[in-house]
Design goal:
The structure is a single chain. Helices cover 31% and strands 20% of the residues. It is of the alpha+beta class and 392 residues long. The strands form six sheets. Strands 8-7-9-15-10 form a five-stranded antiparallel beta sheet.
Length: 392
């Protein structure tokens, strides 16, 4: 069974993760993990924290000579900023604790977390709820994407909407071209006209002390049909993808394929018709289902979008209440970004990669990469014989 846990606080000594269930013999690309961590820190509109941290991964267990052993893998990402926070984030007791922060930020975990965990200091909540902790998700995702790459599966993303400005794509986009354009854009959009408007909108929001949200789209290409299952709600791949993306900080909505658009069209304009050619196998002319039918992959690209709310830490703070005195105050300001949607897309890639990796391991098993790939190839051969064609 594939599973992982993460730990760490935003300004603590480090962030960590333990991964269990990956097969032996998977090659670990350290440069690729660090490249993904760097991508997470990029994007126009990020704050000063990204100038301090330069994330790199350390692997402490489960890997020998660059290949997995089949035992638990331990990852660590050090927080360089911890040197500036040793007194405020000391693990050991200190003679004089720093004053508590009591001005809860609307939209953040502060208010509910302080009540739930019976603390008078919102730092006890914000340190773990901070999106800084997504660095470990990206590191875990990078390892999972290495396994997917060996299976012929690729995950990419781009920003579809930012600050209410939509990036337009053709009806049947060439995702390789979309990826190239997005990676060359400071806001990770594949539409140059929208890019210019979005950068201007981020500048304007920053000037007035505000923040912006948006929508990113993640695409997984090369998935064989049959990942996931229809037999139980918690085995449906679409429900697992939605849960994983909703688990990213500030994500408030997820849709797959046409998503909420299906509510506005008749079935004749929603469902993807099925065709068959003896030479090429089964095919679809549309992908409104986003590659998932009945909770399972159908061989088309998985297409999933997530809506990110504007960040809740504003330079021009909103009204709030002192959680101790109940007096009216302005919300606490913690170092923040104007916009993190481009970075959220990178985190979305990681989460989709993790979920698809788990589904691949469930379907094909194997204690080694050799066994996993042999099982996968056997399945592809079987469905190809049943007429699935080159997509299988």
């Amino acid at each position: 069974m594939f599973r992982f846990l993460t730990g760490g606080e935003s300004h603590g000594p480090s962030l960590s993760a333990v991964i269990e269930g990956l097969p032996a013999g998977l090659t670990i690309d350290f440069e690729e993990i660090n490249r993904q961590l760097k991508r997470r820190q990029g994007g126009y509109g990020r704050g000063d924290r990204q100038k301090i941290e330069s994330d790199t991964v350390e692997i402490l267990s489960g890997v020998r000579f660059g290949r997995t052993l089949g035992s638990p893998i331990t990852l660590v990402v050090r927080n360089r900023d911890f040197d500036n926070w040793r007194d405020r984030m000391s693990v050991a007791p200190v003679a004089s604790e720093t004053p508590p922060i009591v001005e809860a930020r609307p939209g953040h975990a502060d208010f509910a977390g302080m009540l739930k965990y019976a603390t008078n200091d919102l730092r006890n909540i914000l340190e773990r709820s901070s999106a800084r902790n997504t660095a470990t998700l990206v590191a875990v995702g990078a390892i999972c994407r290495g396994l997917l790459q060996a299976c012929g599966i690729r995950v990419l993303s781009h920003v579809a909407v930012l600050g209410g400005i939509e990036a337009k794509l053709p009806p049947a986009p060439d995702y390789a071209q979309v990826e190239r354009a997005a990676e060359a854009s400071p806001v990770r959009v594949a539409d140059p006209e929208a890019e210019e408007k979005i950068i201007a909108a981020i500048d304007a929001a920053g000037a007035r002390g505000d923040t912006l949200g948006g929508v990113f789209e993640v695409v997984a290409i090369g998935c064989p049909p049959g990942l996931g299952s229809h037999v139980h709600w918690d085995r449906r791949l679409d429900s697992r993808l939605a849960a994983a993306l909703m688990g990213i900080q500030a994500i408030k909505g997820v849709e797959i394929g046409m998503g909420f658009g299906v509510a506005y069209r008749p079935g004749s304009q929603v469902h993807d018709e099925i065709f068959h050619d003896p030479a090429t196998g089964f095919s679809r002319s549309t992908n409104n289902a986003g590659g998932l039918e009945g909770g399972m992959t159908n061989g088309e690209p998985i297409v999933v979008r997530a809506a990110m709310k504007p960040l809740s830490t504003l330079k021009s703070p909103l009204r709030s209440v002192n959680m101790e005195t109940r007096e009216a105050v302005t919300a606490h300001f913690e170092r923040s970004d104007v916009c993190a949607v481009p970075a959220a897309g990178v985190i979305g890639e990681a989460m989709v990669g993790i979920v698809v990796c788990e589904a691949v391991l469930e379907k094909f098993g194997g204690d080694s990469m050799e066994e996993l790939l042999r099982n996968l190839q056997s399945y592809r051969d079987a469905i190809r014989q049943r007429g699935f064609g080159s997509q299988g």
